Amino acid sequence: MERIGLFTPKQEKIVIEAMKTFVKPKNKFLGWIQAFGIKYLIKGIDNFGLDRIRGQWKTDLIPIIDAIWEKRYETARQMITDLLNKRIDFKNVNEETELKWFDSLTRFIAASLDHFIVTKIKKETW
């Protein structure tokens, strides 16, 4: 599959369908307009906005997106940790300490997302 931005056409389509489920139209005509707008908004952001990301950043981000898409969340978290450590340097802090900070940060974010998802699912099933 050919990528123009960060997503493959199949991934774009799934994102578009997911967005349509979150945006509830008030009537059929508005629903048609919203569906059309969402489709071209997502395609536009990916194909014209995210495609402008510079080479190495894009090369680093695509495997992360693919890992998330394939539900390899821990792998994606580790890849994000490594990317942060690679791209951000703090003065007077050694690499090992930086890596521990970024690892803690991504673990905290992952735990927060897990909590949010579990809480949301509980509310929807009650």
Key terms for this structure?
mainly alpha, 2 domains
Task: Explain what the structure shows.
The structure is a single chain. By secondary structure, the chain is mostly helical. It folds into two domains: 1-52, no CATH class; 72-126, no CATH class. The chain is 77% helix and 0% strand. It has helices at residues 9-22, 28-49, 55-69, 73-87, 95-125. Helix 1 runs antiparallel to helix 2 (28-49) and helix 3 runs antiparallel to helix 4 (73-87). The longest helix is centred in the last third of the chain and has 31 residues, at 95-125. It is globular, with a radius of gyration of 18 Å. The termini are far apart.
Short description:
This protein is an all-alpha fold and 126 residues long.
| Topology order in helix (H) and strand (E) letters | HHHHH
What's the number of extended β-strand segments? 0
- Alpha-beta content class: mainly alpha
Largest sheet: none
Number of domains: 2
Approximately how much helix is present in the residues?
Answer: over 70%
Tally of helical runs: 5
Write down the overall mean pLDDT: 88
Distance between the termini: 40 Å
- Return residue spans where pLDDT drops below 50 for at least 5 consecutive residues: none
Report the sheet-strand fraction: under 5%
